[in-house]
Amino acid sequence: ILNVEQSPQSLHVQEGDSTNFTCSFPSSNFYALHWYRWETAKSPEALFVMTLNGDEKKKGRISATLNTKEGYSYLYIKGSQPEDSATYLCAFYGSARQLTFGSGTQLTVLP
Amino acid sequence: EAGVTQFPSHSVIEKGQTVTLRCDPISGHDNLYWYRRVMGKEIKFLLHFVKESKQDESGMPNNRFLAERTGGTYSTLKVQPAELEDSGVYFCASSQDAGNTEAFFGQGTRLTVV
What we know:
The complex is a heterodimer of chains A (about 110) and B (about 110).
Chain A: E1 5-7, E2 10-14, E3 19-24, E4 30-38, E5 45-50, E6 56-59, E7 62-67, E8 72-77, E9 86-94, E10 99-101, E11 105-110
Parallel strand pairs in A: 2-11
Antiparallel strand pairs in A: 1-3, 3-8, 4-5, 4-9, 6-7, 7-8, 9-10, 9-11
Chain B: E1 5-7, E2 10-13, E3 19-24, E4 31-37, E5 43-50, E6 53-56, E7 65-68, E8 75-79, E9 88-95, E10 104-105, E11 109-113
Parallel strand pairs in B: 2-11
Antiparallel strand pairs in B: 1-3, 3-8, 4-5, 4-9, 5-6, 7-8, 9-10, 9-11
């Protein structure tokens, strides 16, 4: 059973604050690490797909880093806005050829 | 281009009945996944098709669940007979290149077994 863990489970921040959360995954048999954003009553939408150790990706105020050797990825949100409120999921894709999701970090940005 | 579509969006059935969920992936996507989210918990993998072949069905909970993808296009997930614990939201996703490209999700089918 693959262990993909995300922390914290939930997070409340004030509008304008920057925040980050963690995804840890197996460091062996790594192919790719995905980040998704999941708003209530919608379906998950991809933010990033990262494949190389040291990868850094950015989309607007959101960025992510990847360390495959130690098995973790960070997602950063700069200057959080209420519309950033969502559950952020990471998913590990390895040699088992199955996309395994973490339980997510539920972010609430308070105005 | 149409996204991943799932039908129905909601289904309420009685315990012991049969339900069939359908997923139409994005055209040209060979990889099709089924996931479910039960009671607000994390998304759990059910199975993965590559074209019409089952690449991995290790997440299927038991033999009451049957998935097919005839012709490598749309897929169906049948639950027969449904039990109370099968209630949840069933998501389908498709991707072009397994793992290395993003998966596109459908809106999900909310299944309630009463």
